[in-house]
Every structure is written in C-alpha cells, then in structure tokens.
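Kindly inspect this chain:
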Amino acid sequence: MQFFVFSIFYSLLTIKNIVDNTIAKNLLNHIRIV
C-alpha cells in the first residue's frame, strides 16, 4: 500500500516537471517571437 501511494506521488511529480518544462519552453519561445 505504501509503495502504491509512493508510485502515484512520484508519477504526479514527474508529470508536474514535464508540464513545468513545457510551459517554460512555450514562454521562452513566446518571448523570442515578441
């Protein structure tokens, strides 16, 4: 059970990092275009 919770938590952190990186890249591209 504890391992299951840890897996979900780790997955959420990974997804959050991917989303943050994507947003950061989009912002940088937007700034360059402007």
About this structure: The chain has a mean pLDDT of 92. Helices lie at 2-33. Residues 2-33 form the longest helix (32 residues).
